[in-house]
């Protein structure tokens, strides 16, 4: 049976990325043919059809060059239907925190570097009419005094999405660039470190994977440049455009 599509998941071995890779591999009946799913991350995802390993000690430009070359080797002449970037992390701290600059530097590397490389990959490898998603954050629509580095990085991703949706952005014709803006994701680490939080306000990873599958097929896909807030209440998630 021929492949019906190709997907790249940037951050494909993290909590959300792993769920997305598994969903696209498992739910083939949704697409009526197998999907080729590639992962870009610090370590391989064994469920993926191909892996590109990120070397965190490399500079921004070195990472971009090596990742681009390795993706080109994986894909050959093929283009992808979607690049789903869910790479990132979290660190707190205000301007007086002793680790403020260190954490801000880490947030920039984990979020802005990966998202900008994903955008460059989309310009080169995405099909016309394809989908690029980037990981924003709902709290970064306003000030984030208790996690300034995180907020700065996520706000930069929001701006990047707006730029990618503008004319002459370099993305293929009719492609869509969207940022998802969750509040809190229902990940194993969040459950570990916040056991007493109201988890009915956390967004499930499976919900996001299913949403991405629909968007990949151009079903219910938001307009390019959209900042899509994921607002969860009583374990039900609504999509609210910022």
The whole-angstrom Rg is: 17 Å
Do you know the CATH topology?
A: Rossmann fold
Major sheet details: 8 strands, mixed
Kindly report the spatial arrangement of strands forming the biggest sheet: 3-2-1-4-5-6-7-8
- Number of beta-strand segments: 8
Q: Which homologous superfamily in CATH is the superfamily?
A: NAD(P)-binding Rossmann-like Domain
Q: Are there runs of 5+ residues with pLDDT below 50, and where?
A: none
What oligomeric state do the depicted chains represent?
single chain
CATH class: Alpha Beta
Give the second-level CATH assignment, the architecture: 3-Layer(aba) Sandwich
Broad structural category: alpha/beta
Question: What is the mean pLDDT?
Answer: 93
Order of helices and strands: EHHEEHEHEHEHHEE
Q: Report how far the terminal alpha carbons are from each other.
A: 41 Å
In DSSP terms (H or I, runs of 4 or more residues), the helix count works out at 7
Rough outline: globular
- The count of domains is 1
How does this structure look, described?
- With 242 residues, this protein is of the alpha/beta class.
- The protein has one domain: 3-Layer(aba) Sandwich (Rossmann fold), CATH 3.40.50.720.
- Helix content is 39%, strand content 22%.
- The protein is built from seven helices and eight strands, in the order E-H-H-E-E-H-E-H-E-H-E-H-H-E-E.
- An eight-stranded mixed sheet has the order 3-2-1-4-5-6-7-8, sandwiched between helices.
- Helix 1 crosses helix 7 and helix 3 runs parallel beside helix 4.
- The chain is globular and about 50 Å long.
């Amino acid at each position: 049976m021929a492949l019906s599509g190709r997907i790249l998941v940037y951050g494909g071995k993290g909590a959300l990325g792993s769920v997305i890779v598994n969903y696209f591999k498992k739910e083939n009946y949704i697409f009526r043919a197998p999907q080729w799913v590639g992962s870009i991350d610090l370590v391989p995802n064994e469920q993926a059809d191909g892996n590109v390993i990120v070397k965190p000690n490399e500079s921004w430009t070195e990472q971009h060059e090596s990742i681009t070359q390795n993706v080109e080797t994986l894909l050959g002449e093929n283009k992808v239907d979607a690049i789903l970037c869910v790479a990132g992390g979290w660190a707190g701290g205000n301007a007086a925190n002793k680790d403020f600059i260190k954490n801000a530097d880490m947030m920039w590397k984990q979020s802005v570097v990966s998202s900008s490389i994903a955008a460059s990959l989309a310009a080169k490898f995405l099909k016309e009419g394809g989908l690029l998603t980037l990981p924003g954050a709902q709290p970064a629509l306003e000030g984030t005094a208790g996690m300034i580095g995180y907020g700065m990085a996520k706000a930069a991703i929001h701006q990047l999405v707006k730029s990618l949706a503008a004319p002459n952005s370099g993305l293929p014709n009719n492609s869509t660039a969207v940022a998802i803006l969750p509040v809190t994701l229902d990940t194993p680490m969040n459950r570990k470190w916040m056991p007493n939080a109201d988890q009915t306000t956390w967004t499930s990873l499976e919900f996001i994977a299913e949403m991405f599958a629909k968007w990949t097929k151009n079903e219910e896909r938001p307009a390019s440049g959209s900042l899509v807030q994921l607002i969860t209440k009583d374990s039900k998630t609504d999509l609210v455009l910022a």
